[in-house]
Write a sequence for this structure.
């Protein structure tokens, strides 16, 4: 006998709560990892509410207590990569367009970044107008560890973080807590997790400024502020090998640990990530960065390290990826350059023509 599907079995729940539009990612067993269907459902809700005068603001959160969203469904990406498929290109196209839409949304978009927020989870939250973190927040762009490069507008955000803190986070894939997320420009307000229900209830009738003025606390101090001196010095290079030398020679134990973290990542992904960050600094809009990320992600889908990284970290979980090439010095400039090559005639492209709402960030 087939059990009938109920509303609560849906991967994204949407409903109205007064003047508030609620979006709840509803795959708690998978840490609310994003699928293509979920991206479409979020976009459809934002479209409906953008033109609904009864909706003043939108709140996005995740079901369960483990996190808002741990990123995209990388098992599906792995299956696509090893089969030579192109479904991931369609997924990324719609996901990146959603990221741009969130950044330009004309109504207040409030992201509850409670628990784990990684990769695609950052894309659906950190581009919002109001971003709330808690004592449980763990935020990261860990893509280099699976042979990938920060996307979903992540290189836009990290390239604009203070000093070289974004470079440090991108290359190491390190997770940060609430205080560092606010200091890096990835979040705005600290609210203890036990107050979140009260905050959301209050937002149904009040403005974000008024509500957070009542419920937010000063954020706990993070670690990055104390490490900025060596971070800014060591990462102020456009060469990954030189960055590693500076980290190892700095005399700081935390810097040496960062070097060890970096050396475990995909050599190709590291070099492409650093180039992406430096190029993102020169681009004048989130959309331009997302276009660049789409070219990089498309190239990564056909490169060996993405499938191998996901295999080692998620599929087989042996944590021993065989990177190709295996060393930084074997990654040639032309190997990096191919990730930024202009798309061929007829290749899938992003189209931001429909993302025309007023810039709010």
């Amino acid at each position: 006998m087939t059990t009938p599907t109920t509303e609560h079995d849906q991967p994204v729940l949407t409903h109205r709560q007064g003047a508030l539009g609620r979006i709840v990612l509803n795959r708690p067993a998978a840490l609310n990892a994003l699928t293509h269907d979920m991206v479409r459902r979020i976009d459809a809700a934002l479209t409906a509410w953008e033109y609904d005068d009864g909706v003043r603001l939108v709140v996005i959160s995740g079901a369960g207590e483990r996190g808002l969203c741990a990123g995209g469904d990388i098992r599906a990406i792995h299956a696509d990569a090893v089969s030579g498929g192109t479904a991931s290109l369609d997924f990324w196209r719609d996901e990146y367009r959603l990221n741009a839409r969130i950044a330009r949304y004309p109504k207040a978009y409030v992201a509850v970044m409670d628990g784990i927020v990684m990769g695609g989870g950052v894309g659906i939250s950190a581009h919002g107008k109001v971003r709330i973190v808690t004592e449980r927040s763990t935020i990261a762009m860990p893509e280099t560890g699976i042979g990938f490069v920060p996307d979903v507008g992540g290189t836009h955000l990290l390239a604009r973080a203070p000093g070289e803190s974004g470079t440090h986070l991108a290359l190491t894939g390190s997770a940060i807590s609430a205080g560092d997320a606010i200091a890096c420009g990835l979040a705005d307000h600290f609210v203890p997790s036990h107050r979140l229900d009260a905050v959301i209830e209050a937002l149904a009738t009040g403005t974000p400024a008024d509500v957070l003025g009542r419920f937010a606390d000063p954020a706990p101090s993070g670690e990055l502020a104390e490490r900025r001196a060596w971070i800014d010095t060591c990462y102020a290079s456009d060469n990954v090998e030189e960055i590693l030398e500076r980290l190892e020679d700095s005399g700081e134990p935390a810097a040496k640990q960062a070097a060890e973290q970096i050396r475990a990542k995909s050599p190709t992904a590291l070099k492409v990530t650093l180039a992406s960050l430096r190029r993102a600094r020169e681009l004048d809009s989130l959309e331009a960065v997302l276009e660049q990320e789409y070219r990089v992600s498309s190239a990564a889908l056909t490169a060996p390290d993405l499938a191998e990284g996901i295999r080692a970290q998620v599929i087989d979980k042996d944590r021993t990826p065989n990177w190709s090439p295996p060393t930084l010095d074997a990654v040639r400039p032309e190997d990096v350059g191919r990730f930024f090559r202009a798309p061929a005639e007829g290749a899938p492209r992003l189209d931001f023509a429909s993302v025309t709402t007023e810039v709010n960030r």
